[in-house]
């Protein structure tokens, strides 16, 4: 029964995303603006996101001074690189190269400047120049700055654009292994698909292509959610969507970060507490998950997905009365026919059978079968 | 804002990969050894091309590695020659996407007098005028035979017109016109006086049955909430090889004329503002519903049946902007390339019966090399490297390159970056495009019509600009794109404006291809070919036997659409060089070029052989001949007319 419950849990977790399953409570008043983040790391993270969302004007307006000689971020190679990229993408290519050439980053962060220069060469169709820098030995198996995933990507991209897909392939494969969720991973996967096609390997091309499209769609959703969050920072729904996307991708830490930010806006947001329950459950913290589901249901007793998962946890912990209570509410409730909780009917039938209530078990099982279930009553 | 792409399902890649890669296990194309470390770029960092508006790009072109001895020049003589068309395309602020896309232009012979006349699609001065009317007519300019024009009466249409296609739809030997628009799709045939008359209003019949809002006449009642057909590029070609022209109808998106989107898409907490580079701009196409293309089977009398279900069986709607026809796989039928805005482009391969199946993704011509769907505006076709295989160029948005792929026996090779086109075109937003031998040296140049959609592009730090100069590049044999400088203030490459539709044809009768440009919200341009030194040329016009040909099997349309002509000439090193052209009018953006084929022979006095592969399957080799002539070929009868070029 526990295995079946776990299977039911898995299906439900997937079905829980990405749409908001619960009625949205009235939005609370906008919270006071948080104190501005001023640490270099926070600034760099913000600039990175602005670039990814094509909102890079602040990097140009304030960033050039901060990363130039004498600026507070002049030694932060990554900051220099981000500002240079903003300049390049906004038509100020010559200034971007000047900034990179004049940069005096710390040794530890010099690699960002070097790689940004290589990226700019590639975007300027100076493919050989980029390859000469990244791969001084053209037959080498690893590029300069091999510890950075981007280095592998740039070599692969440069070879592809030169029309040499066979040479690109090992570098692109290494990149997607090192950084599977990188925002340029869909591009790398697509290039791998094209290279496989040119090599006559249709099956491999199909596999790469499928991954490229799935990840591309995920990134597209992510981008929209991030834009929505920026546009309406006091709205919990887009932030919930962001958390769901990270949960889908398996990044529980980032999902939790977004959920904590959501709770700062809407502390009792039921759908948010359901997702938090999922984060905790996947981490193995079943007690914490159950408490999260409690909180979700306290805010919205009709949030059947939370009730379902709470019941399954209770079953696993031997709290059969708690489990039965929730399962009966589900099986007799307004959402009893929802296919996402089909398994609840089976779990209830089995629990009743285990308790010796054969007639009740048979009735519940019959209902399960009516709804399309095909597993046996006895596991 | 990006929403999920609609790339085609990859399920069929395995099968298509085998089709495209006949010798599996071998690389698709030659992979030359890496060159030595480049010496030309050593030293100071920096780009080899200037940044900034397109005008400065052309003016500061890098010195070519192998300078052409010939210089292509296209001098704007529109005003002097009476071509005084002025485009209207909504308000200057471009608040609605319809106002930004502009119109097309067509070149065709009205009246059968042997010269090329011009027809412009026309829009309205404001989006609101769609409700108040009156609508616009097509604007017709008649050539006096010397390349001078006078305005003639239009066919009496009323609409917001966008795309034009030309071809002999009724098989009577003259060239007809199909006009599409926002809420319009009309077939016009020539009467005995060469005047265009409406033969069929396709949206007032079975094609749009069940869509009461498909047709929109400015000023007339329109059903609330109904989105009209938004027709963009059109292509007349013979899909099923029955000798009658069929019609590919490209369509864009659903736009409610009473309630167009403004400011944002979506509602409430999930609303996403319509922004570009942080600036508020018009909404679309992302987030709006694309309209599916249609493929109509011609009956040969100017009427059409909707064959979309059978001939476009797996079509995925995709904001179509550009359409071009060509024989991709050298099997004598006509395939179609469709440029879609922000979603994957389509390479529709014809199975010979008219059924078109998309192989764009596996052929490597659907998206960028990074897998990103690009803006996909216009399409050009030509044999850049003179290997007998047709190549493709597609224009795109700012921040994206004009793409160029070389065709080969096993598919396409992306040459965009090797040619330096990302660097050359990153600041440009481009529309109409052509691969034409303007200077007559035997190699094709690449032309793009440019201009941004957002007036906000002129704000600081966008990396582009609203007004852009049009651009021309020499491509050589496909080594590097070398921008041609606008060295004359009267050059069509000089003004910084916004061009959309474009068409190529010899309007002054000297055998050199000229260029007509439709400039958004502005006067049209007429680039008369003044390339120096004057090259020897050959102009070939083809005519097929038509559907009345006896016997079974494929047929060539009466206007020769789809015929492939190969001109063999002596190369510089004594080798034999093949110059390949195909008869088509659908190329570029929303426009129709002349169907005649233009060959540049440089200083050669003669050619070695003229070969024709007709869509019917017939092949003719017509032997050698002199340069400097205009030839008319008729299927099965060889050269039936010769005329010396001026």
Topology record:
The complex is a heterodimer of chains A (379) and B (646).
Chain A: H1 2-16, H2 40-52, H3 57-67, H4 77-89, H5 93-102, H6 110-123, H7 127-134, H8 149-161, H9 165-178, H10 185-198, H11 202-231, H12 236-249, H13 252-265, H14 270-283, H15 286-299, H16 304-316, H17 320-332, H18 342-354, H19 358-370
Helix pairs in contact in A: 1-16, 2-4, 3-4, 4-5, 4-6, 5-6, 6-7, 6-8, 7-8, 8-9, 9-10, 10-11, 11-12, 12-13, 12-14, 13-14, 14-15, 15-16, 16-17, 17-18, 18-19
Chain B: H1 13-20, H2 54-59, E1 74-76, E2 105-108, E3 117-120, H3 129-132, E4 139-143, E5 149-152, E6 161-167, E7 176-181, E8 184-190, E9 196-201, E10 231-237, E11 246-251, E12 264-265, E13 272-273, E14 275-276, E15 279-280, E16 294-298, E17 304-306, H4 308-311, E18 320-326, E19 335-340, E20 346-350, E21 356-358, H5 360-363, E22 379-382, E23 391-394, E24 403-408, E25 411-414, H6 421-425, E26 430-436, E27 445-450, E28 471-474, E29 482-483, E30 499-505, E31 514-519, E32 525-529, E33 537-543, E34 564-570, E35 576-582, E36 597-600, E37 606-607, E38 609-613, E39 619-621, E40 625-626, E41 629-634, E42 638-644
Parallel strand pairs in B: 33-41
Antiparallel strand pairs in B: 1-32, 2-3, 3-4, 4-5, 6-7, 7-8, 8-9, 10-11, 11-16, 12-13, 14-15, 16-17, 18-19, 19-20, 20-21, 22-23, 23-24, 24-25, 26-27, 27-28, 28-29, 30-31, 31-32, 33-36, 34-35, 34-38, 37-40, 38-39, 41-42
Major sheet of chain B, described briefly? 4 strands, antiparallel
- The H-and-E topology of chain A, N to C, reads as HHHHHHHHHHHHHHHHHHH
Number of strands of chain B: 42
Round the Cα radius of gyration of chain A to an integer and report it: 26 Å
Class computed from helices, strands and strand pairing of chain A? mainly alpha
CATH first level of the largest domain in chain A: Mainly Alpha
Unreliable segments of chain A (pLDDT under 50, ≥5 consecutive)? 1-36
How big is the Rg of chain B? 23 Å
Number of DSSP helices of chain A?
19
| Largest beta sheet: strand ordering of chain B | 1-32-31-30
Number of helices of chain B: 6
How many strand segments of chain A?
0
How can the largest sheet of chain A be summarized?
none
Fraction of residues in β-strands of chain B: 25-35%
Multimeric organization = heterodimer
Q: Write down the overall geometry of chain B.
A: globular
CATH architecture descriptor name of the largest domain in chain A: Alpha Horseshoe
The pLDDT mean of chain A sits at 90
Which percent range fits the helix content of chain B? under 10%
């Amino acid at each position: 029964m526990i295995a079946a419950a776990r299977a039911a849990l898995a299906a439900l977790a997937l079905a829980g995303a990405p749409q908001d399953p619960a009625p949205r409570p009235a939005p609370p008043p906008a919270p006071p603006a948080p104190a501005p983040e001023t640490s270099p790391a926070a600034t760099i993270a913000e600039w990175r996101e602005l670039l990814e969302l094509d909102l890079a004007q602040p990097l140009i307006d304030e960033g050039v001074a901060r990363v130039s000689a004498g600026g507070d971020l002049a030694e932060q190679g990554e900051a220099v690189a981000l500002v240079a990229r903003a300049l390049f993408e906004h038509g100020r290519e010559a200034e971007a190269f000047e900034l990179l050439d004049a940069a005096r980053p710390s040794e530890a962060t010099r690699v960002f400047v070097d790689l940004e220069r290589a990226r700019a060469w590639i975007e300027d169709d100076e493919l050989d120049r980029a390859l000469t820098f990244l791969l001084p030995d053209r037959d080498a198996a690893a590029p300069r700055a091999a510890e950075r995933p981007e280095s592998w990507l740039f070599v692969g991209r440069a070879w592809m654009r030169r029309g040499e897909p066979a040479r690109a392939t090992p570098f692109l494969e290494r990149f997607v292994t090192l950084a599977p969720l990188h925002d340029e991973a869909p591009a790398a996967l697509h290039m791998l698909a094209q290279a496989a096609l040119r090599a006559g390997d249709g099956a491999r091309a199909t596999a790469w292509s499928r991954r490229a499209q799935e990840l591309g769609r995920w990134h597209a959703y992510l981008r929209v959610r991030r834009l929505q969050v920026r546009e309406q920072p006091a709205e919990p729904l887009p932030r919930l969507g962001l958390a769901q996307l990270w949960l889908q991708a398996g990044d529980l830490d980032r999902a939790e970060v977004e959920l904590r930010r959501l709770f700062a806006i809407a502390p009792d947001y039921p759908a948010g507490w359901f997702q938090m329950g999922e984060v905790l459950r996947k981490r193995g913290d079943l007690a914490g998950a159950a408490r999260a589901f409690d909180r979700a249901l306290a805010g919205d007793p009709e949030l059947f997905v939370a009730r379902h998962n709470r019941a399954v946890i209770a079953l696993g912990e031997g709290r059969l009365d708690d489990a039965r209570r929730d399962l009966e509410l589900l099986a007799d409730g307004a959402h009893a026919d929802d296919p996402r909780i089909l398994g609840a009917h089976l779990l209830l039938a089995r629990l009743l059978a285990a308790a010796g209530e054969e007639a009740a078990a048979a009735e519940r099982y019959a209902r399960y079968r009516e709804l399309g279930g095909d597993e046996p009553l006895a596991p | 804002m990006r929403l999920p792409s609609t790339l085609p399902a990859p399920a069929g890649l395995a099968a298509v990969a085998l089709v495209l890669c006949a010798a599996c296990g071998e690389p698709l194309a030659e992979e030359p050894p890496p060159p030595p470390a480049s010496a030309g770029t050593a030293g100071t960092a920096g780009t080899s091309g200037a940044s900034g508006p397109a005008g400065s790009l052309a003016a500061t072109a890098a010195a070519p590695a192998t300078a052409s001895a010939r210089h292509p020049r296209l001098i704007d003589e529109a005003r002097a020659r009476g071509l005084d068309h002025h485009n209207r395309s909504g308000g200057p602020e471009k608040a609605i996407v319809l106002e930004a896309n502009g119109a097309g232009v067509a070149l065709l012979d009205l009246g059968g007098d042997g010269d090329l006349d011009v027809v412009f699609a026309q829009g309205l001065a404001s989006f609101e005028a769609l409700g108040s009317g009156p609508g616009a007519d097509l604007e017709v300019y008649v050539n006096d035979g010397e390349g001078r024009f006078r305005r003639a009466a239009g066919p009496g249409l009323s609409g917001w017109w966008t795309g034009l296609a030309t071809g002999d739809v009724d098989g009577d030997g003259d060239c007809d016109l199909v006009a599409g628009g926002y809420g319009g799709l009309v077939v016009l045939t020539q009467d005995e006086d060469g005047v265009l008359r409406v033969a069929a209003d396709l949206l007032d019949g079975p094609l749009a049955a069940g869509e009461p809002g498909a047709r929109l006449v400015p000023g007339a009642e329109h059903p609330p909430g109904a989105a009209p057909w938004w027709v963009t590029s059109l292509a007349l070609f013979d899909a099923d090889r029955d000798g009658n022209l069929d019609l590919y109808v490209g369509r864009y998106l659903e736009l409610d004329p009473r309630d167009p989107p403004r400011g944002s898409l979506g509602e409430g907490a999930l609303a996403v503002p319509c922004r570009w580079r942080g600036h508020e701009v018009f909404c679309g196409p992302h987030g709006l519903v694309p309209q599916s293309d249609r493929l109509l089977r011609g009956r040969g009398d100017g009427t059409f049946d909707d064959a979309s279900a059978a001939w476009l069986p797996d079509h995925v709607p995709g904001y179509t902007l550009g359409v071009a026809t060509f024989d991709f796989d050298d099997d004598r039928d006509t395939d179609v390339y469709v440029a879609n805005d922000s979603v994957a482009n389509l390479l529709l391969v014809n199975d010979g019966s008219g059924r078109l199946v998309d192989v764009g993704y596996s052929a490597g011509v659907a998206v960028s090399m990074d897998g990103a769907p690009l803006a996909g505006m216009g399409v050009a076709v030509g044999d850049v490297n003179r290997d007998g295989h047709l190549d493709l160029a597609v224009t795109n948005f700012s921040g994206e390159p004009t793409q160029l792929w070389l065709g080969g026996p096993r598919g396409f090779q992306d040459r965009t970056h090797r040619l330096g086109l990302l660097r050359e075109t990153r600041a440009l937003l481009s529309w109409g495009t052509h691969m034409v031998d303007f200077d007559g040296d035997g190699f094709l140049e690449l032309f793009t019509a440019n201009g941004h959609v957002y007036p906000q592009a002129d704000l600081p730090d966008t990396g582009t600009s609203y007004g852009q100069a049009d651009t021309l590049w020499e491509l050589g044999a496909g080594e590097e794109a070398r921008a041609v400088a606008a060295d004359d203030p009267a050059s069509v490459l000089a003004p910084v404006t916004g061009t959309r539709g474009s068409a190529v044809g010899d309007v002054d009768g000297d055998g050199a291809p000229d260029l007509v440009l439709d400039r958004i919200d502005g006067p049209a341009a007429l680039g008369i070919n003044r390339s120096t030194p004057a090259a020897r040329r050959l102009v070939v016009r083809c005519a097929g036997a038509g559907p009345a040909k006896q016997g079974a099997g494929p047929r060539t349309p009466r206007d020769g659409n789809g015929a492939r002509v190969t001109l063999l000439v002596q190369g510089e090193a004594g080798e034999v060089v093949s110059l390949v052209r195909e008869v088509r009018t659908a190329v570029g953006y929303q426009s129709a070029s002349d169907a005649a084929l233009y060959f540049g022979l440089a200083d050669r006095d003669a050619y070695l052989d003229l070969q024709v592969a007709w869509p019917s399957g017939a092949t003719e080799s017509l032997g050698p001949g002199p340069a400097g002539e205009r030839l008319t070929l008729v299927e099965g009868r060889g050269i039936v007319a010769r005329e010396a070029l001026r």
